[in-house]
Amino acid sequence: xxxxxxxxxxxxxxxxxxxxxxxxxxxxxxxxxxxxxxxxxxxxxxxxxxxxxxxxxxxxxxxxxxxxxxxxxxxxxxxxxxxxxxxxxxxxxxxxxxxxxxxxxxxxxxxxxxxxxxxxxxxxxxxxxxxxxxxxxxxxxxxxxxxxxxxxxxxxxxxxxxxxxxxxxxxxxxxxxxxxxxxxxxxxxxxxxxxxxxxxxxxxxxxxxxxxxxxxxxxxxxxxxxxxxxxxxxxxxxxxxxxxxxxxxxxxxxxxxxxxxxxxxxxxxxxxxxxxxxxxxxxxxxxxxxxxxxxxxxxxxxxxxxxxxxxxxxxxxxxxxxxxxxxxxxxxxxxxxxxxxxxxxxxxxxxxxxxxxxxxxxxxxxxxxxxxxxxxxxxxxxxxxxxxxxxxxxxxxxxxxxxxxxxxxxxxxxxxxxxxxxxxxxxxxxxxxxxxxxxxxxxxxxxxxxxxxxxxxxxxxxxxxxxxxxxxxxxxxxxxxxxxxxxxxxxxxxxxxxxxxxxxxxxxxxxxxxxxxxxxxxxxxxxxxxxxxxxxxxxxxxxxxxxxxxxxxxxxxxxxxxxxxxxxxxxxxxxxxxxxxxxxxxxxxxxxxxxxxxxxxxxxxxxxxxxxx
Length: 613
Ligand code: X8Z
Ligand code: ZN
Known about the structure:
Elements: H1 26-31, H2 43-73, H3 77-100, H4 111-122, H5 134-150, E1 153-156, E2 159-162, H6 163-172, H7 176-186, H8 194-210, H9 216-220, H10 228-261, E3 272-273, H11 289-292, H12 303-309, H13 314-327, H14 335-340, E4 356-359, E5 366-369, H15 376-394, H16 408-419, H17 424-429, H18 442-453, H19 456-472, H20 480-492, E6 494-495, H21 520-539, H22 555-567, H23 573-581, H24 589-594, H25 596-605
Parallel strand pairs: 3-6
Antiparallel strand pairs: 1-2, 4-5
């Protein structure tokens, strides 16, 4: 569960350690004399304050986490009720602690204490103001939003279909009329969220302002060991590094879609139709690899077909992921992981199917929760989730506040970095393929990878650009949807397959919006995982192209990784980055280097095309 989701209201417990809550009821806290100490604050008093908050937060967070876990596994009226209750209390306690940090603002504190104070203040994903009833109203809203998403269905062929079913149709379908129907159908789950969302933003902004921030956007951007405006500039800088590659890929993919579907469905001078790229949100496109495959590069490695052919179960996929981490010298997952995880979608009740990784006791009660499908995408997702779990377990020895990622992008990057080592050679080593394709298939391999990793970048960035705009009041409820599509078109060169209905709230059809999971973390992760990969391959003394490098079985790299993971958030993130990669900056040059041969290929392919949108 994610420490950044202190307004547990958020409920989107995707990663990370515990939460910063006080235990006990609010009344008890107010009654405690030491919370309002007299006289000048001292460093000793600040230390005692932090120790108390951490102890009480740790205790409360386990109760909260177990409540959220039960709800996410079993969504009912009653578990929603419980979550609303716990969220309310959690928000009140977190906001109270955050407010109390103000007493120590002018003190010259040691760096670690200063960072704990900042985490207490800025780390609340959705603060409520201290006004009577605000936290409860906020919790009611966030629970409703989350449940509307996770239980949403659309009648396809007269049968109610959930997101798993609808996603399958979008991922692998090729009939544009069906794709359009399913795409629109899933978006019928979100109009009901719009009013709640707008009210939620009002409440949370008030909460942010009480804590001294201009708005929630500033607060979200204040979790990166630098001022919020500098962090926002960092995002622009990183996007500037990778945008030229994205634009080449977009151009090539649009041409492939045009060749498949014709001008009437996908014109060559229009943005890409969002329902055609094999993903419900057009965020990753590898399911249409065959439509854009480079000539002569072979058909790529169809991992989905291989897994099915080998009779892999969902559990086999997770065991395979675990074996990778073990090959780096890491301890096996505890028995309780296997007893308590949810790996297969329940058949008889609603669960939050979006994949997540949890640590229920902030020590070693680690688990995943995902409605796994046996396919290539989920094979990657399994590694992604396990990356969270190994990180959680590695930093369990830190002070409670530091039991989280160096920043949230680190947390998202670990498993993906490992999955970059799922190379043909690795697949051969574990017996999933017989022969390793030769260098003539390299452009195909890179194309396949880019359809996930490069295609994702603008989406990874614009999700929170939309939210920052909303939090700042630049995007108002009347403009929610229009502003969403404006960003989608501007950065992704993607558009809806048809005009959107007046009541559409399309951002709400993406998990992280109704569940209030910040998304910048994924953009950062997609840049940083290549920095990790490049550094690891250098450590391993790898001589070939980066996309052929696998660190499978390399315990030396594993030990260096473990050392960074164990740091948690105890040091500013540049220190953690340096510990593993030797550099202190996030940098897009590793992802550019990885895809350099593809860039050259795309520029040649696109030479006679009119790129842009
Ligand atoms: O939400 C996730 C993970 C859980 S932290 C499955 N991801 C983002 C998404 O699905 O939109 C991973 C990639 C981006
Ligand atoms: Zn994740």
